[in-house]
Design goal:
alpha/beta; Rossmann fold; 2 domains; about 15% strand; globular; binds uridine-5'-diphosphate; EC 2.4.1.-; transferase
Length: about 500
């Protein structure tokens, strides 16, 4: 097999969560742009979300397709159509979802056996350890993909491979994360991101993930080397694996349509959104979006609304699943009329990268999901950091302490995703207003933050251009796969 990607057929298994599917679909198109054939395997509801982007790519002569598999939802007690983490009735159902995903092993293997041309490489989410067993049985090299960047991934590795958390007795005490190139302080709950979890199922999956990761020929990451050079190196050393940073993958979305329809149908028409932004001054607008899984309680949504209003800045606020009570509050207050012209509230999916790349946007209030973080960085926009769960608190430290391009809103305690958590810490309107004002200030600190953000954005752009580090890493990954295939004496064709 020559080192020519046009001979390769990549099969991608993205985890059914937007923060994992979106970058994988971008990566699929980047591989197809190299001339490789790419098959994305997912479920019907998820396939429908990406159908238009994949159709556009096929029309542009990229060899890319989506194949569908059904999740056995009824078997694990999940309602019909509940095929993505953002559709789960609550975070307590995540474990059922994991069980349903595990049941894909056999149908996925059967699908791969008859795929033509036969697959030459599997790129699958770390949360699908069973793809490693399938890859081994069919003699296909596997590359593993995880959501976060190298900094957070290294932190997760440190806390899951040492006893550091067991030595911390208090949940509010800050400790220094050991063995990191920078001095990073977190609390125990903030550092307890993914890992063994507290159920038998989650522990089993995590242990299986570690075994599967050992067998993978390398780890592909949505990041770029210039952003976190020390962490890329340290992660490769800690994992004893090749780490290929090929991002920011969001920058492969060049056309207006691709930027406006990424991951889901947007709740606002792209032209209307651009028209609204066009009326605002350069760098003046705050964009607020807390990702695909976060949930704001009525009380929190009201505080946010009032905080934004009192900041006196123009703002574009996307809110996922507003509660009925919040809608009642909005109308009773006449909130939207009151802020008309300056602020806009949109319920539902944001065309995020379209918005971030508009010159009127000057600040991003983010929940610090890794994709949003990297998208903010790529657009050169400083951020107000409002982490919620998972590795988001680690990403916050990366934004504020390592890159120094953010202002903390002051969130301390992680919450469960997708859940109205009554005990949830409420961030008050004054803190929201202060964080935004501080971010947008034209003082020396604010200017320095803006300048640093622009430098990282320029680096991101170069990384993804021809000859850039991420393009070179993509080539190295393809070479490694080709070398692995050359060692293979029994290819899949001879097994099935
Ligand atoms: N996203 C979007 N519109 C939304 C919410 C999210 O386009 O209204 C995209 C966002 O651009 C990012 C992904 O969904 O690519 C969310 O991933 P992230 O890692 O930021 O957070 P998660 O949703 O996984 O918590």
């Amino acid at each position: 097999m020559a080192s020519n990607p046009t001979n390769l057929h990549f099969v991608l298994f993205p985890l059914m969560a937007q923060g994992h599917m979106i970058p994988m679909v971008d990566m699929a198109r980047m591989l197809a742009q190299r001339g490789a054939m790419v098959t994305i395997i997912t479920t019907p509801v998820n396939a429908a979300r990406f159908r238009s982007v994949v159709d556009r790519a096929s029309k542009a002569d990229l060899k890319i397709q989506i194949l569908e598999l059904q999740l056995a939802l009824a078997e694990v007690g999940l309602p019909e159509g509940c095929e993505n983490f953002d559709l789960l009735p609550s975070s307590a159902h995540a474990v059922n979802m994991i069980l349903a995903m595990n049941l894909l092993e056999e149908p996925a293997e059967n699908m791969l056996k008859v795929l033509s041309p036969p697959p030459s490489c599997i790129i699958s989410d770390g949360c699908f350890p069973w793809t490693n067993d399938v890859a081994k049985r069919l003699n296909i090299p596997r590359v593993v993909f995880y959501g976060p960047g190298c900094f957070a991934f290294l932190c997760v590795h440190i806390v899951t491979s040492t006893n550091i958390l067991e030595e911390i007795n208090s949940d509010s005490e800050y400790f220094v994360m050991p063995d990191l190139p920078d001095q990073i302080e977190v609390t125990k709950p903030q550092a307890s991101t993914w890992g063994r979890g507290d159920t038998k199922e989650s522990t089993e999956v995590f242990e299986r993930m570690l075994v599967a990761e050992k067998d993978a020929i390398g780890i592909v990451v949505n990041s770029f080397e210039e952003l976190e050079p020390k962490y890329v190196k340290e992660l490769a050393k800690a994992k004893d694996k090749k780490v290929w940073c090929v991002g920011p993958v969001s920058l492969c979305n060049k056309s207006l349509q691709d930027r406006a329809e990424r991951g889901n149908k947007a709740a606002i028409n792209a032209q209307d959104c651009l028209k609204w932004l066009d009326t605002k001054e350069f760098g003046s607008v705050i964009y607020i979006c807390l990702g695909s899984l976060s949930y704001a309680s009525t009380e929190q949504a009201i505080e946010l609304g009032l905080g934004l209003e009192s900041s006196n800045m123009p703002y574009l606020w996307f809110i996922r699943h507003p509660s009925e009570e919040f809608e009642e509050w909005l109308s009773k207050e006449g909130y939207e009329e009151r802020i008309e012209g300056r602020g806009l509230v949109v319920r539902g999916w944001a065309p995020q990268i379209l918005i971030l790349s508009h010159q009127a946007v000057g600040g991003f209030v983010t929940h610090c999901g890794w994709n949003s973080t990297l998208e903010g960085i790529s657009a050169g926009i400083p951020m107000v950091t409002w982490p919620q769960f998972g590795e988001q608190f680690l990403n916050e430290r990366f934004i504020t302490n390592v890159l120094r391009i953010g202002v903390r809103i002051g969130m301390e305690v992680p919450v469960l995703f997708n859940k109205l958590d009554e005990s949830k810490e409420i961030v008050k309107r004054d803190n929201i207003k202060e964080a935004i004002k501080s971010l947008m200030k034209n003082d020396e600190e604010g200017e320095a933050r803006r300048k640093r953000s622009k430098v990282f954005a320029a680096m991101a752009k170069s990384a993804i251009e021809e000859g850039g580090s991420s393009q070179c890493n993509m080539t190295l990954m393809i070479q490694a796969i080709t070398e692995e295939l050359a060692k293979n004496t029994t290819p899949i064709q001879d097994i099935v």
